[in-house]
Amino acid sequence: MQWTIGKKLYSCLGLLGIVIMLMITGGMYSQRQIGRSIEELSAKAIPNLQRAADMKFLAEAYRSANRYNVILAAQRDSDGLGKNRKKMDGLHAQFNQRAEELGDHTGLEDVRNLAEQAVAGMNDFDAKCMEIARLSAAFKASDAAAQIPVAAASGNKVQAIEDKIAERLAAQMTAVEADAGSQERRGTTILASLAMLQFLVLGLAAYVVRTVVRTLTNASVNLRSGGEQVSSAAGQVAASAQTLSQGATEQAASLEETSASMEEMASMTRQ
């Protein structure tokens, strides 16, 4: 197959279209990867929000159990006090476990620090509540009740830390959602711009190729026409030359005949 200039130009145009399509495909893939990264970040943020909510629930349950010790002490319910003590130990252990999981799974340094502070605060709160439990076990309800405000101050510190954690995680989730929307809009804009650019470039390239091919075609036609005219003129010149050659030949023959006649007349005259 003969590769003319037109075929070469159209081949380059096709390659340009393939390159642009690859660019668009790459943009779509990048946008999908960004969306996947945002989804993964959201998947991490949601469990952390649940852990923070669990911490809040466990701390409130622990405070309620601590106050209940005073009631059990007033009732002199030793069995109830023993069960309540075990319940408080379980709540304390679960709270620390949730806080440690939060610190291990978060990517935010300030949340990690707050989780450590929550564990330390809860341990301090537990130490004060265990003093109340000891007084309650001795059925010293009045002394135990007097220690409730002291322990409550430590409990309030834990609650304040929990509120900060929840606020920070909620802000992170809002930022993730906002970033997801922004990335989606940006990706859509880029893809639309690339698509428009593709059509513009292809249209311009097609126009240029068509113009070049048309110009070359006209030039080829003109050259072919000029060649035919030159060939025709050459044929006419050759015919004219042949005619002149025949005329010269005939004149030479006539001159020879005339010369012979004159020689014959001269010979007759000498006789």
Structure description:
This protein is an all-alpha fold. 95% of the residues lie in helices and 0% in strands. It is built from four helices and no strands. Helix 1 (5-75) runs parallel beside helix 3 (109-137). The protein is rod-shaped, with a radius of gyration of 53 Å.
Which descriptors would you attach to this protein?
271 residues, mainly alpha, 0% strand
Short description, anyone?
By secondary structure, the protein is an all-alpha fold. The chain is built from 4 helices and no strands.
Topology:
Layout: H1 5-75, H2 78-105, H3 109-137, H4 141-270
Give me the oligomer status: single chain
The coarse overall form would be rod-shaped
- Using the CA coordinates, give the radius of gyration: 53 Å
Helix percent band: over 70%
The chain-level mean pLDDT equals 79
The profile of the biggest β sheet is:
none
Q: Count of DSSP E strands? A: 0
SSE-based structural type: mainly alpha
Q: What's the end-to-end separation, in Å?
A: 86 Å
The helix-strand sequence is HHHH
Total of DSSP H or I helical runs spanning 4+ residues: 4
Strand content: under 5%
Low-confidence stretches: none
